[in-house]
Amino acid sequence: MSRLSPTVVFCLTICLSATLRAETDQQARVFDHRIKAEVNQEIRDIFPLVHSEIDARVVAGKVTLAGAVTSYRERSRIERRVAEIEGVRYVNNRIQVERVPIEIRHHQLNGSRRGRASSFNTTSKPPGTEMVRGLLASKVDDLIVIRGFRGGRVSATISDDAMVTLDGEVVSHEMLSAGLLVFAEMEPENGEMVARSLEAYSPK
């Protein structure tokens, strides 16, 4: 049997190396994609009621987190949960803590308020549900007033079947008090705003 020439051997070696490298790169991309999906799911579990401000990038099992939260407690909680995901080799936590404000990105609040109804800047407001972020300025029974991060106040009535959480735990709305950071999902009903869900956090 004739021997392969050195040139042929070299070419075969290069081809095999390229094939193995391509397969390895493809496996790494699939692996990173799975990790990113799990990271995004963890973030949704931590912030189930609102659009998250956190973005995750995964390269070779190394996760870089960016965005903003309202407390160091949330920042540490996210990092800890992400670090526990199988396959994560390292977490680079670049999340910023913005106590006041994380800006409302989809709606601008109108400062005027009449009675128990709230008024929104409707320049780009879609119909239906409103996502409101701010500080709980006052609460009397089921009536709340939220001071938006861009100024202005929004009043609403908490619906009887509203989903209410405090620092991630499901609670009665009676546990809420002024000074909490709140993320509220509201919708108009009979000329007034009704809160369908409230996610509250202690300002720590």
Description of the molecule:
The chain has 2 helices and 13 strands, in the order H-E-E-E-H-E-E-E-E-E-E-E-E-E-E. It has a 5-stranded mixed barrel with strand order 8-9-10-13-12. A 3-stranded mixed β-sheet has the order 1-2-4. A two-stranded parallel sheet has the order 3-5. The chain has helices spanning 6-46, 72-83; strands at residues 55-59, 62-66, 68-69, 90-93, 96-97, 109-114, 117-120, 130-140, 143-148, 153-166, 169-170, 181-189, 192-201. It has 2 domains: 6-97, Histidine-containing Protein, Chain: A (2-Layer Sandwich); 109-201, OB fold (Dihydrolipoamide Acetyltransferase, E2P) (Beta Barrel), CATH 2.40.50. It is α+β, with helices and mostly antiparallel strands. It is elongated. This is BON domain protein. Residues 31-99 form the BON domain. InterPro entries: BON_dom (IPR007055).
Any key phrases for this structure?
Histidine-containing Protein, Chain: A, OB fold (Dihydrolipoamide Acetyltransferase, E2P), elongated, alpha+beta, about 200 residues, 2 domains
Quick summary of this structure?
This is BON domain protein. By secondary structure, the protein is of the alpha+beta class.
Question: Which helices and strands appear, and what pairs or packs with what?
Answer:
Blueprint lengths: L5 H41 L8 E5 L2 E5 L1 E2 L2 H12 L6 E4 L2 E2 L11 E6 L2 E4 L9 E11 L2 E6 L4 E14 L2 E2 L10 E9 L2 E10 L3
Parallel strand pairs: 2-4, 3-5, 10-13
Antiparallel strand pairs: 1-2, 6-7, 8-9, 8-12, 9-10, 10-11, 12-13
